[in-house]
Amino acid sequence: YSAQNALKALVDAFVRDEPACLKARDELLGVLDGLSEADIRRPQKAEIARIRGECLGAFPETAKQGEDLLAKAVKLAPKNIHAWNGLGELQFARGDLEAAQTCFEKAVVGEATDCVALRRLSMVLRRLPASKPEDKTANFALALEKAKAALKCNMKDPYSWSVLGNAYFAEGMVNTASAASHKQRATQAYQQAETLFQQAAIVDADLHFNRGTLRAFWAEYGLALEDFNAVVAATGMQLPQIAAITSRIEKTRGAMDCFGKVKPKKASEALAGIPDGELVQ
């Protein structure tokens, strides 16, 4: 129980600042180190390995140790869905997509309604390499189904709504016949996610970044800038997308001004100087 409380303190500390994270990590490891080996039974050993693994896996310098501990946890307790999810997270983070997919599928087998595993499966499927276009299309379609299944687990989970928005956006990219309708569904999913995040007083940078990408793709540049600026405010990151969109708007505005000031031939020459991808469609 004390270890679980310490793990929650570590998670909460991530919302605040790095010194708080390091302090919470050290406190958690201290709690675990203080447990008597003789009093620990096999199920508890698996849970302790999981908690320690998630703790160490949260920091780049100890991520490998964390992954090894989580691998130990799933061997000790093959039905521990939290351990499978934790192991899959670390494998996903270092780019081992097939191993991560296996972990999340193991978690779903253990608990068919685990929304975390289903969300992660949706993300992995959209990143899997595909040698044939039809394989990529199939992966994206399955990713959308996993995102829908994750949402059914809990309709009030903003993360599931956000992942559903991503899945619709991605599916529309490979299934161009449905691009417009999928864009509308993605927008609705993002809006629902934002509403739920606001109710929880959370600013989710991933949501704003992904929705900003959708809006930029559909040439909704003003709205895209709102989302990208929200990411900067939440994380302090500098996004190249902001400068790119601002430049695009200025070039387009300058080209449009030409129409009222010069002859049609000169206006056409001005527009020709702007790459096709930078023109508002």
TrEMBL record:
Organism annotation: Oxyrrhis marina
InterPro entries: TPR-like_helical_dom_sf (IPR011990), TPR_rpt (IPR019734)
TPR repeat intervals: 81-114
Record keywords: TPR repeat
Name by which UniProt lists this protein: Tetratricopeptide repeat protein
Coiled-coil stretches noted in the UniProt entry, renumbered to this chain: none
Keyword Calcium appears in the UniProt entry: no
